[in-house]
Structures are given as structure tokens and as C-alpha cells.
């Protein structure tokens, strides 16, 4: 009985340690990525650690690390480090707060759910699907939120007659999403290798 309790304690300690390391990584990447922009939107380098966290630790931890990313995004907006988010927060604080917190939380949870469903049948395919789902969910929720505030986008960011929809899908989402999606797929084999190595070390 004592041995079982010790194993459970060690397992929990290992999970919390892994989560802490990945959380520190996403905070650093989020702050660093906020200074690199395509157009007016900063690049998002945190989706890979979100995927990895969900694959290693499960749905709850995948959602939690996504929530951490959402809070960091909010802080960057509140402090002015991310000027795009800062302007939107000033115009619609409740909606933008909800978007920031929900999109990465949902991305982490969905990604982890997909991997959980696939890992016993085809772990390699599950890794790719999980990696692909994260930017898809994150960007889809962002687009839905932005569609609710097209007038705000037009007022603050468009002064050349461009339609708000074109600005949203081309100037804001376009290249950023392509970058995130390709990066996740390119790194999916590395994620698979990490999972395999960690899995063997636990045996």
C-alpha cells in the first residue's frame, strides 16, 4: 500500500514538475513572440508547448497551460507590450478578455483530446492531428470574436477603404495562421520523438 502511495506521489510530482517547466517555456515564448510581428499581429510560438503539454499530461493540463497563455496575452495587452491587444481591450474589455482566455484554453483541451483518442490506435497520426488542431481551434475562436467587433477594427486599424473582413482574414489572420500551422506540422515528428523517449523512460 505504501509503495502504491509513493508511486502516485512521484507521478503527481513528475506531472507538476513537467507542467511548471512547460509553463515557464510558454511564458518566455509568448513574451518573446509578442515583439515579432507579421503586420499588426504578433507571432505565436507557444502552440507547440501547449500541444506537448496536452500529449504528456492530459486534457486538464493542456487546458490549464492554454489558460496561462491567455493570461499572459492579457497582461501584454494591459501593459501595452502588445499594442494590438491593448487597443482592443480599451474598446471592448469584456469580449477581448474572453477571447484571450478561451481560444488558447480550448486549443489546449481539444488538442489533448484528439491525442488521447488516437494514441492507442495510431500515435504518430494522433501527434500530427493534435499539432494541426491547436492553431485551427485557436484561430477559429479568434476569428469568431473578431467578427463581433468588425466596427472596432475598422475604426482603429483601417483608413484606406479596405473592408473589415478583408483586413481580418488577410492582414490579421492570413500569414500568422499559415506560419503557426506549418510550424506545428513541421515540428510534429519531433513531438512524437519526445513522447516516445519519455514513454520509454517511464517504463
Nearest-integer average pLDDT: 86
The CATH architecture? Orthogonal Bundle
Given helix and strand content, the structural type is mainly alpha
Give the C-level CATH assignment.
Answer: Mainly Alpha
Q: What is the count of β-strands?
A: 2
**What is the total number of structural domains?**
1
Numbering strands along the chain, what is their spatial order in the largest sheet?
Answer: 1-2
User: Are there runs of 5+ residues with pLDDT below 50, and where?
Assistant: 1-7
Amount of helix: over 70%
Question: Major β-sheet, in short?
Answer: 2 strands, antiparallel
> Which fold does the CATH topology refer to?
Arp2/3 complex 21 kDa subunit ARPC3
Helix and strand pattern: HEEHHHHHH
Q: What is the number of helical segments per DSSP (H or I, 4+ residues)?
A: 7
Q: What general form does the structure show?
A: elongated
Sheet-strand content, in percent, reads under 5%
Rg estimate, integer Å? 18 Å
Distance between the termini: 20 Å
